[in-house]
Amino acid sequence: RSLYSLNQGLICWSFCNIETMKETAFCHYYVLQPSDNGLMLLRRLAGAEEILPLPDVNLSDSSADKEIDNSIQLCLKEVELKDYNPVQHSSGFHEKTNQLVQESLQSGLVTLEGTAATD
Origin, by domain of life (predicted)? Predict the structure, then answer.
């Protein structure tokens, strides 16, 4: 009831594919959504691991694979890390939205009640 009253869902993950009820090598992500009759709806989110074929990395042990892995690891170590706090970041979204609303109100395309102006 709390999630429904807030109009929110819950993100869940599992190594079990709920559709096949089989355990997999990668995570499946789900959205748990409340419905108006009190039941919870479980919807799977699509991910790249479901779209692309997943090779069994344990079967391949070639020197080329190890060389590629080492190269990737070296490149990742060279990447400069920076802290990111989304609370301290301003995207300008709200300012732009407010500007568009003001322009629409001034041009008469939208009234304060939210209905389109008619000629």
Answer: Eukaryota
